[in-house]
Amino acid sequence: MQTAINHDYADSEINSRHNIYEQLFLQACHAQLIIDPLANSVLSSNQSAQTLFHLTAEALQKVSASQLFTPSLGELIVLSEEALAEGHAWNGALAVAINHQEITLEITVTAIEYDQRKILLFVLIDSNDLQHKRENSDANQHYQSGMGHWNKVTRVFQEFERENQLILDAAGEGIYGVDVNGITTFMNPAAENILGYRAEELAGTDMHKMIHHSHLDGSHFDSCDCPILEAFRDGVVHTVEKDVFWSKSGQPVYVDYTSTPIKDNGVIVGAVIVFRDVTQKIADEQKLLSALNEVEQLKNRLELEKAYLQEEIKSEFNHHQIIGNSTAIKDIIQKIQMVAPTDATVLIHGESGTGKELIARAIHETSRRCDRPLIRVNCAAIPAELFESEFFGHIKGAFTGAASDRTGRFELADKGTLFLDEVGEIPLHLQSKLLRVLQEQQFERVGGSKTHTTDVRIIAATNKDLLEKVRQGSFREDLYFRLNVFPISSVPLRQRIDDIPLLAQHFLKRSSTRTNKLGLKIPLSELENLKNYSWPGNIRELENIIERQVILSQGEKLRFPELKHMEETSTKPAQAVNQLLNENQFKDYQRSNILSALEKCQGKVFGHNGAAELLGIKPTTLSSRIKKLKIDPKKFRSTSTEHHD
Ligand SMILES: Nc1ncnc2c1ncn2[C@@H]1O[C@H](COP(=O)(O)OP(=O)(O)OP(=O)(O)O)[C@@H](O)[C@H]1O
């Protein structure tokens, strides 16, 4: 039973194989005939043979074999005999006539043993057809090599990629290659990371269009201007810093890159671009820059603050106790105490040298702003063209000479007090600008567009009758009312004679400390003398007389013989000419003499009615003596004649 089954299985296996062979024979693409050479008959033909001879299978079996190869019968016989003898034979060009048309066949003949005789398998190929196919193949080959340049480029890059694979994979820099048309040939993993594209997405695309199409500001980046593509034209390495490539997500990536042309046998075939993502570096640089800017601004501000503070330290006004027991002074002190804790604007009015600045400082010192500076602006000393810059600051390049940003006084006084001395001297056309800041506490630096907010308390002072100026039209009424919120009047010395002894003691202490002549006293009788002198208003006159006598005094008692003469003649300050003076005394005398001259000329050194003219010496000589003796002529200027500091 088992054997029978195996047998059946073997039979069916053989049958199925026969079927396959038969199908292979029948459907083979070349024409095939099985010929019995002895019987000169066609035993079988396949479909291609039937197509070749334009005959059906039956018709082919009816014709003799020699009939099919009529024009080349002799060659057919030779071919058949060779196959019968050798097992196979070949003829490259055997002519046959089909439908009165001669065609040439390439024939392979194989002898097969069948049923105790030899039969022949003819495989026939139409030579024309073959030729045609060969030509097609050649053309194809030619086409392939016509794409040769591309293939060559690809090969160059493939070689590059293969040879440098390890480096490309490991490199932290993005690396990609482009051919001379800017088409991407490869890209390494770092480039994929940086740009967010996979290599397959960019391979074969125009790299410039994909990642280098726009500048940072969004404007079109013409490929003609692209340094990467430029490398193809000039053949040199191009290194570019701080450019942008565009990532897949549309974000700009700041890059530094080098584009190196690649040559094959001296011909440029493309370029390899090595780039580094410098986004973080640029962000850090920008942070650093803005930090430095901030530091620079703070430094400027601190320097200015320092300058002001130094000015204050040097200033005699640093001793701002208000001395006096008179009703007038008591009244002023009471007003100061009332207004200081508020932020109200104060307008101090009074003659020159009657303590207006002293009052302003006292208000600031007792206000909540005392740990921020009081910034003084002498409005009479600022040239009109610099007024805005002085008050509001400017930015670099705002005008000729604006070499760097400058902080204005409003900014500097932020959270502190701004003392507008000689406020009546502000030119009319600039008063509106000041008014705006006073109203809105906002301003812009000259040349800048950023609005700055400031928190400043204003104290203004003037020796002018502002209401009169308003009437004359040289002072804005709205500004006057804005300033005159809390008026305080300083009192001239002539109206506070009772304060003279106290003031005299105060100035004596100050002068003797300065000149290191301690232990000096003013006798009561001399205090009476001082009280009896008809003082004008400026307290500096009393201060100067005392300083002069401190310098001249040889004992410990101060006397003021000059007062009488001053009263009588209002000239010749020093009466010590008959005294014998030692070197130091002479120097003191010289100093005193200069002080008197300066006082008389209200600090004017040069020119007509100047101290030099009065003393009969050259202004330059006086100038250098003043410097040597550390005298500040500004101290003697009446404010109305004071000009640029
Ligand atoms: N009550 C006072 N007690 C002590 N010193 C005073 C007093 N009043 C004025 N002085 C002194 O007189 C001098 C002039 O004062 P101050 O500069 O404040 O006057 P001013 O009115 O602002 O002068 P100017 O109008 O010239 O600017 C200073 O040395 C100041 O110390």
What's this, in brief?
This protein is α+β, with helices and mostly antiparallel strands and about 650 residues long. Strands 2-1-5-4-3 form a five-stranded antiparallel beta sheet. Keywords: ATP-binding, Coiled coil, DNA-binding, Nucleotide-binding, Transcription, Transcription regulation.
Your description of this structure?
The chain is α+β, with helices and mostly antiparallel strands. The chain has four domains: 17-127, 2-Layer Sandwich (Beta-Lactamase); 167-277, PAS domain (Beta-Lactamase, 2-Layer Sandwich); 315-380 and 408-489, Rossmann fold (3-Layer(aba) Sandwich); 508-641, no CATH class. The protein has 27 helices and 19 strands. The N and C termini lie far apart (135 Å). Bound molecules: adenosine-5'-triphosphate.
Distance between the termini: 135 Å
How many strands, what sense, and barrel or not for the largest sheet? 5 strands, antiparallel
Low-confidence stretches: 1-5, 145-149, 314-319, 569-578, 639-645
* Radius of gyration, CA atoms, in whole angstroms: 57 Å
CATH architecture of the largest domain: 3-Layer(aba) Sandwich
Q: Work out the count of structural domains.
A: 4
What is the residue-averaged pLDDT? 83
| Distinct ligands | adenosine-5'-triphosphate
Q: CATH first level of the largest domain: which class?
A: Alpha Beta
Write the CATH homologous superfamily of the largest domain: P-loop containing nucleotide triphosphate hydrolases
β-sheet strand percentage: 15-25%
CATH topology of the largest domain: Rossmann fold
Helix content: 40-55%
Keywords: ATP-binding, Coiled coil, DNA-binding, Nucleotide-binding, Transcription, Transcription regulation
Domain Sigma-54 factor interaction: 322-551
InterPro entries: AAA+_ATPase, AAA_lid_NorR, P-loop_NTPase, PAS, PAS-assoc_C, PAS-like_dom_sf, Sigma_54_int, Sigma_54_int_dom_ATP-bd_1
Protein name: Sigma 54-interacting transcriptional regulator
